[in-house]
Every structure is written in C-alpha cells, then in structure tokens.
Amino acid sequence: MYALQDVSKRFGTTQALRSLTLSLPEGRTTVLLGPSGCGKSTLIRLLNGLLHPDTGRVLYAGKPLPTEAKALLELRHRVGYALQGGGLFPHLSGEGNLTLMARHLRWPEARIRERRDLLVELTRFPREALGRYPAQLSGGQRQRVALMRALMLDPEVLLLDEPLGALDPLVRHELQADLRSIFARLRKTVVLVTHDLAEAAFLGDDIVLMREGQVVQQGRLVDLEQRPADPFVTRFIQAQRWASTSESSPAPEGAPT
Ligand code: ADP
Ligand code: MG
C-alpha cells in the first residue's frame, strides 16, 4: 500500500529520518516500534502528506503522494489519522469531533447518523457520552472518539500514533483487545505507532523496529528474537522484557513523547 524509498527528513539540525526505505503491505497491521525520538511520528506524518520528505519518495498505491493541495486533501479523506494524544478539538463534543469532516463534506444527516451509530457499536463507546466534551471524557473514551473520528469517512488506511499512550494499565489492556478485534473485522491497512514491544506483538502482523531515523528490522516478533538484524534488536527486546517484569518501572527506552 505504501512504499518509502530513500526518505530523509530533517528539522533544523535534527535528522529525524535518514535515508529510510520501507514497504507497508495492504490489508495488514504494521506497527512502528522504537525508542522515543527515533522518528515514528515523523514517518506517520509523511504517510498522510502532512510532511514532505527532503529527499526520496513516498508512494501510495504505486503512485507518489501528491503535493498539490486539492489532491492532498482528497488523499487525506482516504487515510484516517489519529494523532499522538488523540488531538480532539476541546470545544467540540465527542459527536462534534467525530462528525466534523463528514459535515464539512456535506454528507446527508441520515448518512452521518448511520455511520456514527456503526462506529459507536464498533468501538464500544457509551452512546450517552457522545454529547460530552473531551475534558469530560475518560482517557480511554477520548481514544475511542479519536479512533471513531479517524474511521468516520471509511478510509482505506488507518494511521494511529500511540493510540494507547498515557492510559492506565487496565484501560490500556481493554482497548488493546478491542483494537485487535476491530482491525480483524475491518481488514484495513493499519499503521500503528507504539514504543511498547508487547503491544506491538499483540496488535501487529508485522513490526518495524526503528532507531535514530532508520529501520533496524522489519518482521514478526519471532524474527526479531531469533534472527536479529543488529545487536540493538536484542538489546531493545531485553530492555522491554526487563521493564515489564520489574513491576511499575517504565520501559528504560521509550517514554511516550
Ligand atoms: P518519535 O515519534 O519516534 O518519538 P518523532 O518523529 O516525533 O519521534 O521525532 C523525531 C525527531 O525529530 C526528534 O528528535 C524530534 O525532536 C524531532 N522533531 C520532530 N518533529 C519536529 C518539529 N516539527 N520540529 C523540530 N524537531 C522535530
Ligand atoms: Mg511520537
């Protein structure tokens, strides 16, 4: 679905992505994994055209991403995106947030309601909370609204940047299970960012482990474990395992940013 060829991106003196080459298969869930600052969010933002690469190309369905504003906007309607932290508009209710784009595109009311009802059911969002503002929702509910908003236009691709960051462990666990069944039901191309190995293995068909703006290895968890492409792969896995067994300590590499 996506192919990145030799993509670099720099912010001032920070080289966020370094000559990165990667392909992301259609209809599967690919998880971008890696320590904080390794370029995961930058990569996601390149995929929906929010950022343009300094060098290299990003191909979507075999064609370079458009640069012209109108074509880019059309692309974004086909690519659902939930940014890190949810990114809900605080002055709009849950319902207002999730239906915003559809209203902007002048969907008929009946179609909006139908889609909303389907998404409420899909994400198991409490319907009576739709009228609340983000500040009146729990962290888990906000994430569900962000997910519904990303799915509202029924996109081909779903880009989720740390959709489970900053949630307490129980809520996180519940949402992980829900996300997995949602991905299985929808069979969309999903690209999801996390810094948590267990979450990556649970949700992803494929893991892309990144470090300092480059891909270290792409594969399933067993590939990373049994055929590490680099000593960093083993170190990263061990550090995460150690963190998850030593109670209450966060992962040494990769707090959410
Ligand atoms: P991750 O999501 O893996 O934590 P990011 O992609 O957000 O990493 O950031 C990669 C690097 O690029 C970091 O060093 C970050 O500080 C820097 N960076 C990202 N976006 C910007 C920006 N808009 N301006 C300046 N630096 C940025
Ligand atoms: Mg990030």
UniProtKB/TrEMBL annotation:
Protein name: ABC transporter ATP-binding protein
Alphabetized InterPro entries for the sequence: AAA+_ATPase, ABC_SmlMolc_Importer, ABC_transporter-like_ATP-bd, P-loop_NTPase
SUPFAM superfamilies in alphabetical order: P-loop containing nucleoside triphosphate hydrolases
Pfam family, one: ABC_tran
A single MF term (Gene Ontology): ATP hydrolysis activity
ABC transporter domain segment(s): 2-237
Record's keyword terms, sorted: ATP-binding, Nucleotide-binding, Transport
Listed transmembrane segments: none
